[in-house]
Amino acid sequence: MLFDGFDRICGVDESGRGPLAGPVFAACVILDPARRIDGLADSKTLSEEKRNRLALAIKAHSIAWAIGTASVKEVDRLNILQASLLAMKRAVESLSFIPGRVLVDGNQSPLLKCPVTTIIRGDSLVPEISAASILAKTARDAEMMALHRRFPNYGFDQHKGYSTERHLAALQAHGVSAVHRRSFAPVRELMAACKREGMR
Q1: What integer pLDDT is reported at residue 2 of this predicted model?
Q2: β-pairing verdict for 116-119 and 101-105
Q3: Helical H runs in the chain?
Q4: Exposed, middle or buried: residue 20 (CB in 10 Å: 0-12, 13-18, 19+)?
Q5: How far is CA 33 from CA 61, 79, 144, in A?
Q6: CA-CA distance, 168 to 161, in Å (whole number)?
């Protein structure tokens, strides 16, 4: 583990920067050195089944963990980077104590009341960040399944809001829902096209 001279190293990662719909999620995890969790890796490289299994182990065996989110409205108001950092900040600040150091995947970090280090590709290099990526991804996937039940026409259960051909076709057929990110180009352009059509 990097920076093992500090107490309570907290890994942080986000999920959902790219999709056209749904909130952005972040998670933070403080692993217990005495309770090793085998198989931790970047969540994108794991099957859904393995992610779900590891998420249960992380929640059961970590010293602490937390989830933070930023809403679709916050994504549109702040931009996706700032909304992602806000979700990270909310995750870390919901812990019951201040970590000794926070390790964040990537090259951007939220403003926190503790030392922060950014690590590019940290989700594949640092177990704490890998664990956070798994919790963020599984939490967001669960939210998109819930949104699928509210908005079944869009196929959120399959593509989780990402810009797939099926999703784009559903947008064309059914229009923009309340959980689509209006600041994202495909959604924004569709809304502008519909407005032009309505003015004819």
Answers
A1: 46
A2: parallel
A3: 48-61, 72-78, 80-93, 122-125, 127-150, 156-159, 165-174, 185-199
A4: buried
A5: 10, 37, 33
A6: 10
> So what's the pLDDT on residue 198?
60
Range of the domain at 87: 9-150
Count the domains in the chain: 1
Q: Which residue has the tokens 């990097």?
A: 2
Does 102 map to a domain? yes
Q: How far apart are CA 163 and CA 165, in angstroms?
A: 7
Q: Is residue 87 part of a domain?
A: yes
Q: What is the pLDDT of residue 41?
A: 95
Would you say residue 109 lies in a domain? yes
Residue 181 tokens, joined = 């990110």
The residue-averaged pLDDT of 102-114 equals 95
pLDDT in tens, 115-148: 999 999 999 999 999 999 999 999 999 999 999 9
Query: pLDDT value at position 48?
Result: 95
The DSSP code sequence of 127-167 is HHHHHHHHHHHHHHHHHHHHHHHH-GGG-HHHHTT---HHH
User: Which three-class secondary structure state does DSSP give residue 74?
Assistant: helix
pTM for this model (two decimals): 0.93
Answer yes or no: is 95 within a domain: yes
What CATH number is attached to the domain comprising 53?
Answer: 3.30.420.10
